[in-house]
């Protein structure tokens, strides 16, 4: 292990020593991706979204998406601690009701129905956003509450650009990230590498009968190696071919719960994803097609209890869509999606499969100067050639004034059971029905500019009513089994307020997010509504950023309210407030750009739990640097 770390360290230093070039800007170049998929465009057009800006992305280059979303607190993240699994829930939903989309393809695990967002490196993506609302009609099963949209693509920069970052924390975590982007003529290439050796040794408090006892988490080590390669080749001015390859291997120890006896358990996640896409654009017609193959495995090994479980799946996917721009602002879009997933597990009697065939359509209209935008969409999806699930909806945006806009959307949503829900042995239930329901929301957006001050505000009211909610319960034989038992109504209010002041080289901003969510099941026999487990009724965050010349100070305060642990709302986790600080300094020399940063997390030393019985880190520290090199090509190269 020491030799591996030493070799990687030398490799990283060589990259850093190579990064010398004239820079005319003190801003790290994190270019966004040009959005061409009409579903991505339409799902961001009339739906509320939380966009990850370049400043946040730069601050988390060596982190994963769970760490960033926990700090943003615009959605619920259930995390088991640093380096371990984390799931995403939107507006009182489960993780299975949120789709994770990579370059237009759903990458949720078909066996579990969800994606582990702790395995999504932020430095791999150029564009990240969280869309909320009725998106099943655009993205299919699982997009009931929203979509986490991830896009990776080579940056459209002329020449060679090299970026590298390293960080080290008081948790004894060492993470290195590097990116090489090359653009010449018709070919654009991007290579991104992440190397993570993290001990995750953090302190937390354990409650005893008489006092709080400080303990150190000893069994939470993570070793990770991930590579993402993107190629774009411009066949013609209106024709583009893309190839994307994502390889990742993560070995991590499973942490002990606070009250359990130590166990020697670990998990290995192996991922191979590849995608080929082809785009053709004419004057009025745009055609996109994608061909993808995913091969993933989750290997769990518990030496203490003599358990070894190798669960793996393979997914083959073909997606094609056509967009036609008609006269008078009308656009007609449609396509087909086909996905076959093959799952293998010691708890499956034989290999199981999930076949999904879908047709989707969208008609949109934009008035002159985009004063009014309207979309009507539909999707028909067939599962295993037996279960037909139709869905439809409508969205609209009305730009009332230059400073005031109104958005609304409504539609049906659904989620088909996972392979584990249907075929797990013992307990699987092949007679499960899809979760289905309705989702509606309306938003008001305002923006003002008063001299050097800009003010943006978004307020959203939402409601989602879901029938046949799937829940695993103990059966008469003692085995747990999934059943369609719940009727859940989620509703609430969200606000997003941003105030920015700019003058010369000084900038300060305040961003406040608030969430009020009631997510209740149908009244029980005592006629009482109860909040769903782990869904806080109140949560929010405030981010204050101050920039002056080449300095930046960023302060983040998050609040998470009561989270109930049982359906009777008797047991709960106490609320907590976290305060994080980050200071960074950018140095611009004749030959390179260097950014040095330092962080203090959990400044208040809060004792809290995201998941019951899993202690979270007390006050901890992190420091690192980012270096950037860009060498333009003066003469164009023809390929």
SSE arrangement:
Layout: H1 2-18, H2 38-45, E1 48-51, H3 54-59, H4 65-72, E2 76-79, E3 86-89, E4 98-102, E5 105-106, E6 127-132, H5 136-139, E7 146-151, E8 159-169, E9 173-184, E10 187-198, E11 203-207, E12 212-216, E13 222-236, E14 239-253, E15 265-281, E16 285-302, E17 307-325, E18 330-344, E19 352-366, E20 372-383, E21 387-401, E22 404-415, H6 419-423, E23 435-450, E24 453-474, E25 480-503, E26 506-521, E27 538-548, E28 551-560, E29 563-564, E30 572-573, E31 576-588, E32 593-601, E33 620-631
Parallel strand pairs: 4-7
Antiparallel strand pairs: 1-6, 2-3, 4-5, 6-7, 8-9, 8-33, 9-10, 10-13, 11-12, 13-14, 14-15, 15-16, 16-17, 17-18, 18-19, 19-20, 20-21, 21-22, 22-23, 23-24, 24-25, 25-26, 26-27, 27-28, 28-31, 29-30, 31-32, 32-33
Low-confidence stretches: 1-35
In CATH, what is the homologous superfamily? TonB-dependent receptor, beta-barrel domain
Per the CATH scheme, the topology name is Maltoporin, Chain A
Determine the strand fraction and express it as a percent band.
over 45%
CATH level-1 class: Mainly Beta
- The DSSP helix count reads 6
Characterization of this structure:
This protein is mainly β and 639 residues long. It has one domain: TonB-dependent receptor, beta-barrel domain (Maltoporin, Chain A), CATH 2.40.170. It has 6 helices and 33 strands. The protein has helices spanning 2-18, 38-45, 54-59, 65-72, 136-139, 419-423; strands at 48-51, 76-79, 86-89, 98-102, 105-106, 127-132, 146-151, 159-169, 173-184, 187-198, 203-207, 212-216, 222-236, 239-253, 265-281, 285-302, 307-325, 330-344, 352-366, 372-383, 387-401, 404-415, 435-450, 453-474, 480-503, 506-521, 538-548, 551-560, 563-564, 572-573, 576-588, 593-601, 620-631. The chain has a 22-stranded antiparallel barrel. Strand 21 and strand 22 (404-415) form a beta hairpin. The radius of gyration is 24 Å and the shape is globular.
């Amino acid at each position: 292990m020491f030799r591996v770390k030493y070799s990687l360290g030398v490799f990283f230093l060589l990259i850093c020593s190579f990064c010398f070039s004239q820079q005319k800007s003190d801003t790290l170049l994190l270019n966004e991706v040009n959005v061409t998929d009409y579903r991505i465009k339409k799902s961001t057009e009339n739906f509320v979204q939380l966009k990850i800006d370049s400043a946040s992305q730069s601050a988390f280059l060596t982190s994963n998406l769970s760490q960033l979303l926990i700090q943003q607190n615009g959605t619920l993240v259930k995390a088991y601690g640093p380096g371990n699994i984390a799931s995403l829930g939107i507006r009182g939903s489960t993780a299975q009701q949120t789709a994770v989309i990579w370059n237009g393809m759903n990458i949720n695990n078909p066996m579990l129905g969800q994606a582990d967002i702790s395995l999504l490196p932020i430095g791999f993506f150029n564009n990240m956003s969280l869309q909320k609302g009725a998106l099943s009609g655009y993205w299919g099963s699982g997009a009931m509450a929203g979509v986490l949209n991830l896009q990776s693509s080579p940056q459209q920069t002329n020449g060679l650009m090299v970026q590298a970052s390293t960080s080290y924390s008081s948790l004894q975590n060492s993470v290195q990230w590097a990116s090489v982007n090359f653009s010449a003529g018709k070919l654009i290439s991007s290579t991104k590498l992440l190397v993570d050796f993290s001990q995750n040794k953090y302190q937390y408090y354990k409650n005893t009968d008489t006092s709080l006892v400080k303990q150190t988490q000893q069994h939470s080590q993570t070793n990770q190696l991930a590579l993402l390669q993107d190629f774009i080749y411009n066949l013609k001015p209106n024709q583009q071919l893309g190839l994307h390859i994502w390889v990742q291997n993560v070995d991590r120890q499973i942490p002990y719960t606070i009250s359990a006896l130590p166990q020697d358990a670990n998990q290995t996640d192996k991922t191979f994803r590849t995608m080929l896409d082809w785009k053709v654009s004419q004057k009025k017609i745009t055609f996109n097609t994608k061909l993808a193959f995913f091969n993933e495995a989750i290997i769990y090994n518990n030496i203490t209890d003599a358990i070894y479980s190798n669960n793996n799946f393979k997914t083959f996917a073909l997606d094609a869509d056509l967009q036609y721009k008609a006269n008078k602002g009308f656009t007609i879009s449609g396509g087909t999606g086909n996905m076959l997933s093959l799952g293998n597990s010691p708890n499956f009697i034989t290999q199981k499969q999930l076949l999904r065939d879908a047709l989707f359509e969208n008609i949109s209209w934009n008035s002159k100067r985009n004063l009014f935008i309207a979309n009507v969409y539909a999707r028909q999806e067939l599962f295993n050639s037996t279960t037909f699930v139709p869905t439809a909806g409508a969205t609209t945006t009305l730009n009332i004034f230059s400073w005031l806009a109104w958005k609304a959307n409504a539609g049906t949503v659904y989620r088909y059971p996972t392979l584990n829900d249907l075929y797990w042995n013992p307990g699987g239930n092949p007679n499960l029905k899809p979760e289905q329901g309705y989702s509606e929301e309306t938003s008001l957006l305002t923006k003002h500019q008063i001299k050097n001050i800009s003010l943006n505000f978004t307020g959203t009211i939402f409601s989602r009513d879901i029938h046949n909610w799937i829940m695993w319960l103990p059966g008469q034989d003692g085995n747990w089994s999934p059943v369609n038992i719940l009727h859940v109504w989620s509703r609430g209010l969200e606000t997003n307020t941003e105030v920015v002041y700019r003058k010369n080289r000084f900038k300060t901003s305040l961003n406040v997010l608030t969430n009020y969510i009631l997510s209740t099941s149908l009244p029980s026999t005592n006629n009482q509504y109860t909040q769903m487990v782990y869904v806080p009724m109140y949560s929010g965050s405030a981010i204050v950023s101050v920039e002056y010349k080449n300095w930046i100070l960023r302060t983040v305060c998050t609040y998470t309210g009561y989270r109930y642990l049982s359906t009777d709302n008797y047991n709960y986790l106490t609320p907590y407030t976290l305060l994080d600080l980050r200071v960074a300094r950018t140095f611009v020399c004749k030959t390179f750009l260097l950014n040095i940063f330092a962080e203090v997390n959990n400044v208040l030393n809060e004792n809290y739990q995201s998941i019951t019985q899993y202690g979270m880190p007390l006050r901890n520290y992190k420091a690192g640097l980012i270096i950037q090199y860009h060498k333009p090509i003066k003469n164009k190269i023809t390929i």
